[in-house]
Amino acid sequence: MTDSERETQAAETTGEPGTPEPEDVVKTEPRQFQVSKPSSRKPATTRAATVVDGPAPYAVIATGGKQYRVKVGDRITVERLHVDAGSAITIDQVLLLGGDGSTRIGTPIVEGARVEATVDAQDRGEKIVVFKYKAKKRYRRRTGHRQEQTRLTITGISG
Questions:
Q1: Is 38 within the bounds of a domain?
Q2: Predicted TM-score of the model (pTM)
Q3: Which end of the chain has fewer CB within 10 Å, C or N?
Q4: Quick one: signal sequence residues (predicted)?
Q5: How would you classify the pairing of strands 94-99 and 102-105?
Q6: Does residue 32 form part of some domain?
Q7: What does 13-63 look like in DSSP terms, one character per residue?
């Protein structure tokens, strides 16, 4: 079959002259992939792990209806505690003790666990503005609230 006969046959079958036949499509060679050689480096799992220090002991304490995760040296702000600034306090409501590769969970508190802290200051929080109104009734009420707070520095965890 000659090229002109192929074009005629293609025009008869598809209805369009000059439609490329499958032989006219440019064929490319299949892509060749190279398999890389395994690396000479050791995988990370076989390297020796160096531990500088274990994780610092931490505790989860409950005070003022909230829970705080603390470690020695942390400064936290809690709901008002009725103690003087500069005094030392002990928090017995320890819900969890962790660190040094072990964790003790209380049911609900860890027996014998304590967190020591010093009171830095007695403060008040940011003002929260409450605005109430009733549409079309000329009823407007604006009130504010500042929560009393105590700032603590954690000095020790035992248990």
A1: no
A2: 0.61
A3: N
A4: none
A5: antiparallel
A6: no
A7: HHS-TTPPPGGGSPP-PPPP--PPPPPSSPPGGGSPP--SSPPPPEEEEEE
Is position 143 within any domain?
Answer: yes
Q: The tokens of 111 are what?
A: 């027996």
Residue 147's Cβ-count burial label (10 Å; 0-12, 13-18, 19+) is middle
At 12 the three-state DSSP class reads: helix
3-state helix, strand, coil in the chain (%, to 5): 10, 40, 45
Give the pair of three-digit tokens for residue 50.
């160096």
Amino acid letter for position 71: K
Q: Residue 155, Cβ neighbours under 10 Å: how many?
A: 14
* Residue 5 domain-assigned (yes or no): no
Structural domain count of the chain: 1
Question: What residues contact residue 128 under an 8 Å CB cut-off, 6+ apart?
Answer: 144, 145, 146, 147
Domain range enclosing 77: 58-158
77-126 per-position pLDDT tens digit: 999 999 999 999 999 999 999 987 888 999 889 999 999 999 999 999 99
